[in-house]
């Protein structure tokens, strides 16, 4: 079954967002992957690779400074996570992109060991929206220094910082886990630059 131009464009946009997302999470993604043109996408048969039903392991990426820390990206046309569960290994980091809208998507995200996205959620990069401020995920060392600066103890940090939910689109883009802290920098013509910190919490 062929793939028409509209679906090729759809998949091209999804792939670009995925590549940007992984690089923003500090995975090793080359510039040529980010800057790939639609024609290069077509020539490399990426659309066909992303549409190998019912479920396909599309690609893997490793962290820049730790090639043992890898994440796998799957594309699936399943109606639930059953087909993907059989492919996941214990402790495997994985992103599963479903073609169809799934019922009880938030419940599925909690039950499945992988990160769950629907294709339409990846058509655009949410961090590039004009109204979305700059977000930076703090390392554990940076988080510790922040808590020490504000004199917040280990037992108080969750209550001492505003929250960002794990279901927030930005939290999902960066793959935030409970307890991680994100730095948010806003720019305003009236107030100049302001910085706030939020702690990731379960929804």
TrEMBL record:
Its main location: nucleus. Transmembrane segments: none annotated. It is found in: Nucleus. It comes from the Eukaryota. GO terms for biological process: transcription by RNA polymerase II; transcription elongation by RNA polymerase I; tRNA transcription by RNA polymerase III. Belongs to the archaeal Rpo5/eukaryotic RPB5 RNA polymerase subunit family. It comes from Cannabis sativa. One of its GO terms (cellular component) is RNA polymerase II, core complex. GO terms for molecular function: DNA binding; DNA-directed RNA polymerase activity. This is Uncharacterized protein. Keywords: Nucleus, Transcription.
């Amino acid at each position: 079954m062929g793939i028409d131009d509209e679906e090729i464009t759809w998949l091209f946009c999804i792939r670009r967002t995925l590549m940007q997302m992984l690089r923003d999470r500090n995975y090793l993604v080359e510039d040529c992957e980010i800057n790939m043109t639609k024609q290069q996408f077509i020539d490399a048969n990426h659309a066909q690779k992303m549409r190998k039903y019912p479920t396909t392991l599309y690609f893997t990426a490793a962290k820049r400074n730790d090639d043992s820390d890898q994440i796998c990206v799957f594309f699936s046309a399943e109606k639930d996570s059953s087909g993907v569960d059989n492919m996941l290994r214990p402790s495997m980091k994985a992103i599963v992109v479903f073609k169809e809208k799934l019922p009880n998507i938030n419940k599925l995200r909690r039950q499945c060991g992988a990160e769950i996205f629907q294709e339409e959620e990846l058509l655009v990069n949410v961090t590039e929206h004009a109204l979305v401020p700059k977000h930076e995920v703090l390392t554990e060392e940076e988080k510790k220094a922040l808590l020490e600066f504000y004199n917040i103890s280990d037992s108080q940090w969750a209550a001492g910082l505003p929250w960002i939910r794990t279901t927030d689109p930005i939290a999902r883009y960066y793959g935030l886990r409970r307890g991680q802290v994100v730095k948010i920098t806003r720019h305003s013509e009236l107030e100049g630059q302001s910085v706030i910190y939020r702690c990731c919490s379960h929804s």
